[in-house]
Amino acid sequence: MNNIGLIGYGNARWIAGVHYQQGLLYGNSLLPPDQQAAFHLLLRREQHSPDHYQPVRPYVQGLYALDYFPSLRPEWSNRLRYVLRKAILERKLAYPTNDFPRLLRELRIDAIFPANDIIAPHRSVRQVSWITDFQHVHLPQFFPAKEIAFRNRVFERLMRLSDTVIVSNQFSYTDAVRLYPAYAHKVAVLPFTMYLDQHWSEPDVATYRQQYGLPEKYLLFPSQFWKHKNHALLFEAIRLLRQRGVDDLVLVCTGSPHDYRAPAYFQQLQQFITEHRLDSAIRILGLLPRPDQVQLMRGAAAIVQPSLFEGWSALLEDCRSLGKRVFASDIPMHHEQITPQTTLFDPHSANALAECLETYWPSLKPGPDSSTEATAERTYQQRIGQFAQRFTTICQSVTQRSLCNS
């Protein structure tokens, strides 16, 4: 059995990272005991909330909150940053302790994942990193020049120092091998499945519709308001539909409104809604608790995913797990996740999306569909177990390779 140090990844600003790790932990619990890894969850106090991991707490050997994580910075720099942050933000003096090396020894950790933010040379444990995608290479217009340079430096360092680098799809694998051919042997493909509460199919969806003031039939796009998610085109498609007399289609959007790369973007979208009098056609609910989001997905007549770029679409995985009809952008990454319930459209044409929705909307029914959900739930259990099994296989390969080289 491998002892894995699972490093907290993601937070309220990027909750998908937390859901990724929840899926990994739950999937591992479904494996035969002799195939399971032993996960030890290592969180940084000021960045990660233990509450986010409460649903999967039974599936970890232990949860440890650290003052800070080590990095490539000198040790004194990490400590000084911690002291200053406490003094400025909380007006109190606190001296941090570096528990990370001690925990690695005491817990007999074989590998850490994801090692992204704490990658270091000459570490005694194996370091497995995760590159979500190479969006900055394909869509540089969405990134400041400084961030592109920063990402290039970080990714090169990960490829050079990691024992293995995980990517989530074949498209990203091709990018990694093309951009870093000297480290191609380190790259492993691991598609993921997001965690759903074990009792996700039991609640009454009508309660959630009522709670959020939604109509019985609606189209849902649960995603952060990042520019590449393509809300602007989606909103224009809704405007076209209203112009054509399709008045019964209500779009519901959930997700954080903040895009650090384009701070004014959300306000521009709100202005578009106001200018075109789409308040009754587009409902924005903000970031919801994960259980609420899942129930609104169940209740939707369909899901829409207009994104211009994805590493591995967590939303499409959720649609597969819930058995949902989905209208998805025709991009290479989505081709790897197509199901019979998926309809593709040109993500650069609002008219193409409007025509697609206009064609299918009259025949779509509000969810949930119990028969479809029952089938989807069975395949979900299989897929999330396979996700964890592939991960443990990757870690075993890394540690065995280390033993052979020692």
Automatic annotation (TrEMBL):
Domain named Glycosyl transferase family: residues: 208-358
Q: Example GO molecular function term?
A: glycosyltransferase activity
Q: Which UniProt keywords apply?
A: Transferase
User: What CDD domains does its record include?
Assistant: GT4_MtfB-like (cd03809)
What is the name attached to this protein's record?
Glycosyl transferase group 1
- This chain's source organism reads Fibrisoma limi BUZ 3
Do you know which Pfam families this protein is assigned to?
A: Glycos_transf_1 (PF00534)
Lineage at the top is: Bacteria, Pseudomonadati, Bacteroidota, Cytophagia, Cytophagales
Q: What superkingdom does the record give?
A: Bacteria
Matching entries from InterPro entries are given as:
Glyco_trans_1 (IPR001296)
